[in-house]
Amino acid sequence: MVCLLVYSSAIYYAELGQPGSQIQSIPDGFWWAIITMTTVGYGDKVPVGAWGRLIGAACAITGVRPTAHCNRSRDRPPPSPAC
Hints:
The chain has helices spanning 2-15, 26-37, 50-75. The protein is an all-alpha fold. It has a single domain (2-70), classed as Helix Hairpins, CATH 1.10.287.70. α1 (2-15) crosses α2 and α1 (2-15) runs antiparallel to α3. The mean pLDDT is 83.
C-alpha cells in the first residue's frame, strides 16, 4: 500500500508539467500505479515524460518482484535432514 501511495504521488509530480499528460491528479496516479503494479496494463493512463517513464519502469518492477520471489522459493528442493 505504501508503494502505491509513493508511486502515485511520484508519477503525478513527474507528469505535472508535461504536455499531453493523461495523469491529471494523484487519484489518477493511484489508478495508474495499481494497474502498473499488478501488470494489468489497460493503457488508459500512461506517462509521457522521461521521468514519468522511469518511474513507470520502477513501479512495474516493484510489482513483479514479489511474485518472482515467491516462485523462486517454491522451486527450491526441501532442505536435506541434518545428520
